[in-house]
Amino acid sequence: MLDLLGTIQNESIFTQLSQWITSPWVSLALVCILFVGFVYQLYSKSFNWAGILAILALLFIFLGYLAEGTISFITIMIFSIGVILVIIELFVVGAVLGIIGMVLIVFSLITMGDNLPLMLLSVCVALILSIIEWVILVKFFKKKISLFENVVLKDSTNTESGYTSHNDRSYLVGATALTLTDLRPAGLILFENERIDAVSEGSFINKDVKVEIIEVEGTRVVVREIQSN
């Protein structure tokens, strides 16, 4: 008899907990935590507290509605596939699988329970908060999704970062060279045993004349004759 009363009491507590989780305000809060946490995790380079909160919120939502018995088998399948994809995204560099998984989870969230307007409202509010969070992360904190940071060679192909392309000869500007051929206005110059195609600033320059490199634009090298005193 005591065991039966204990079981009834435990079931009552579990039922009350599930009803509390699926109540309008708690559901809204959990969905918002899920979305905001996922977006922050998406822009993080490693798994952190935001991902933990998102997973806990997702777990509470699912278990709450599952305890109510209002989730269909199809919803469970879609939800499970979405969760698997999100978990894979957490351990594999990239964001595509995570985004697809999140879309599936959102769809399953909307179809959970028997209060469609409530879930639609919760998802809409969470989306608005996520967009605001995204703007703050991108505009103010200059955050980038790790997928794009790995696909695009970020900040490494500019001279400010120390990158020099094979054809970049901007370092030649101001250097002195010797004409190997007449420049009419194009010809060859010699700089530190390197033969370089060059053009004169406009005037004709004879062979074996010292010139100053005054401009480099891509592979185009412009020189000016050094006037002897």
Strand content: 5-15%
Helix content: 40-55%
What is the CA-CA span between the terminal residues?
A: 117 Å
Q: Which overall shape is indicated by the principal axes computed on the Cα atoms? A: rod-shaped
Mean of residue pLDDT values: 80
Question: What assembly state would you assign to the polypeptide chains in this entry?
Answer: single chain
Number of domains: 2
> Secondary-structure element order, as H and E?
HHHHHHHEEEEE
Give a quick account of the main beta sheet: strands, pairing sense, barrel closure.
5 strands, mixed, barrel
- The radius of gyration computed from the alpha-carbon positions, rounded to a whole number of angstroms, is 33 Å
Number of strands: 5
By DSSP (H or I, 4+ residues per run), the number of helices equals 7
Strand neighbour order, sheet with most strands: 1-2-3-5-4
Low-confidence stretches: 150-166
Q: Which structural class do you get from the secondary structure elements?
A: alpha+beta
How is this structure best described in words?
It is a single chain. The chain is an alpha+beta fold and 229 residues long. It has two domains: 2-151; 170-225, Nucleic acid-binding proteins (OB fold (Dihydrolipoamide Acetyltransferase, E2P), Beta Barrel), CATH 2.40.50. It has seven helices and five strands. The chain has helices at 2-21, 24-42, 49-68, 73-91, 96-111, 116-140, 146-151, and strands at residues 176-179, 186-191, 194-200, 210-217, 220-225. A five-stranded mixed beta barrel has the order 1-2-3-5-4. β1 (176-179) and β2 form a beta hairpin. α2 runs parallel beside α6. The chain is rod-shaped and about 100 Å long.
